[in-house]
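BUG: 3D viewer hangs when loading the predicted structure for this chain

Environment: internal workstation, default settings.
Expected: structure renders.
Actual: progress bar stalls at 90%.

Input used:
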Amino acid sequence: MELAWKWGTATARQCLVHRLGVVGGMAVDHDGLSGLGTLRTDMRRRMRARWPGLRPAPAQRS
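Structure tokens produced before the viewer hung:
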């Protein structure tokens, strides 16, 4: 499982929240991606509300 190896001990939820943040950063400067930016903001906010103990993914890959 390559994804698990690259991220070390990160959970699938941690990876998803991290990637939603990355996508949001890419969508900010592109008018054509504003809907995607809004979707990712809503998804990320709802995930954090549902799982308040969800920690950020590790800063460095193992």
